[in-house]
Specification:
Blueprint lengths: L20 E5 L4 H11 L4 E8 L5 H13 L4 E6 L1 H15 L14 H15 L3 E3 L8 H12 L3 E3 L1 H5 L6 H11 L6 H5 L1 E5 L2 E5 L1 H4 L23 E8 L2 E5 L2 E2 L2 H13 L5 E7 L5 E7 L1 H17 L2 H19 L6 H12 L6 E9 L1 E8 L19 H11 L1 H10 L3
Parallel strand pairs: 1-2, 1-4, 2-3, 4-5
Antiparallel strand pairs: 6-7, 7-12, 8-9, 8-13, 9-10, 11-12, 13-14
Helix pairs in contact: 1-7, 4-5, 10-11, 12-13
């Protein structure tokens, strides 16, 4: 495909339309809304794909479809991404049980599934050009581009990266660009960048980027303390081979369970945090995140896992988990090492079977009861309560276990 300039910027890498067709991963937000007229004015027939990964209700889904029509796209499709995000990300993530840098629960990992939906649409159209609304300042561009490159031979167009060469205040330029063409911008999008999906919600921009306390408008799913219900919430989650399969005794598909847990635990403010982390591109990133359902699943799974895995499994597994999380965070979703690590994680889950009761009074969720045929109980002993060994055995164990340290102290003790 020709790579001649199609922008007013002579250094632009946006290819000149050959086939005319381009597939845009579309969310209806500021960035992807801007991309539609921007590409159209450069000769593209824009086909939009919205991969519904579970963060929108029927009203919002309808808004996104109407937004695409309002912008005059050549075609628009909506894809149900719930089952794919559960099997492709949530299962191994819960198995791993670690957030990025010990905190962030990888809430934008739906990007990889959005890429797959966009590429499938491109193949249906016989199109080899993919566009996205990722900025040149963030991590999503890395995730999107690397996923596309791993899955096929496509050209990638990134309009937001292009306008950064000409405009320093990118969001303000996008808003003005759309408004000059008669397209409104929702008030929330003017202040914050908001991402919602089945996994949770992230929010950046405004005072969050300025290292200030979040303002009154920085609200998402989680209710503030003043609105928490007075009665405690208790739920029971059943696991089979480490996968959540039932909620309060009812079998339910994974993505539907996560959606239900989001609704339940958001009422109690569970899973909200303010996070600063080291991004892939080297900048510090600061966001509000909300992941009520994922936090509930992670708490339940970890409690069960701690009871049924051996000491060595529990000690070693977090090392594997941290590497898996780093690969996913940094864009290497299709790297063979990720597949290798998932094979280990899957193997570790063969005895993670049972039920966990979760309880919250607000803010924090705790695993208060665990039942499983695989709990590693000693028949004649209970920690700090009863033992089926004698004093001599205990003293002998302590002597041998601490031999090296004791010898060092004896030899080097100052008299």
């Amino acid at each position: 495909m020709s790579q001649r300039s199609a922008s007013t910027n002579p250094e632009s890498q946006i290819p000149n339309p050959g086939s005319k067709d381009i597939v845009l991963a579309f969310s209806g937000g500021l960035d992807t809304s801007f991309c539609v007229p921007y590409l159209q004015e450069r000769g593209w027939a824009v086909h939009t794909v919205f991969a519904d990964t579970g963060g929108v209700d029927a009203e919002e889904r309808e808004f996104i479809e109407q937004r695409a029509a309002e912008l005059g796209v050549a075609s628009h499709v909506t894809v149900d991404g719930g089952p794919a995000i559960w099997s492709g990300f949530v299962k191994p993530f819960v198995w791993a049980g670690e957030g990025y840098q010990g905190q962030y629960p990888l809430l934008v990992s739906d990007r990889y599934l959005i890429v797959e939906a966009a590429l499938k649409r491109a193949d249906e159209l016989g199109c080899k050009v993919i566009a996205h609304g990722c900025t040149g300042m963030g991590n999503d561009q890395v995730r999107f581009d690397l996923a596309v490159k791993a899955l096929g031979d496509y050209d990638i167009v990134a309009p937001i990266r292009e306008i950064q060469k000409e405009h320093t205040e990118v969001r303000a330029y996008e808003q003005k660009y759309l408004e000059e063409r008669g397209f409104g911008v929702r008030a929330k999008q003017k202040a914050y960048t908001i991402n919602e999906n089945l996994l949770g919600l992230t929010m950046s921009g405004g005072e969050i980027d300025r290292w200030q306390a979040p303002g009154e408008g920085a609200v998402g799913w989680c209710k503030p303390r003043s609105q928490w219900p007075s009665e405690a919430l208790k739920v029971t989650i059943a696991f089979e081979n480490g996968e959540a399969v039932a909620l309060d005794g009812e079998k339910i598909e994974g993505h539907k369970m996560l959606a239900k847990l989001n609704g339940l635990f958001a009422q109690y403010g569970v899973g909200r945090g303010l996070y600063t982390g080291d991004t892939t591109i080297g900048l510090k990133g600061r966001i509000i995140y909300e992941a009520p359902g994922l936090f509930a699943l992670l708490t339940a799974h970890r409690a069960l896992e701690e009871a049924v895995l051996s000491k060595h499994q529990n000690r070693f597994k977090p090392e594997v988990a941290r590497k898996w999380v780093e690969l996913v965070y940094e864009g290497f979703f299709h790297d063979p090492l990720k597949t290798d690590l998932e094979a280990f994680l899957a193997s570790s889950q063969s005895t993670v079977n049972g039920e966990v009761v979760l309880e919250t009074n607000g803010g924090v969720v705790n695993a208060v009861a665990i039942s499983s045929p695989h709990i590693l109980n000693a028949k004649g002993a209970t920690y700090a309560q009863a033992a089926d060994w004698g004093v001599e055995e205990a003293e002998g164990f302590i002597k041998l276990f601490g031999m090296s340290s004791t010898l060092w102290a004896e030899i080097n003790r100052k008299n």
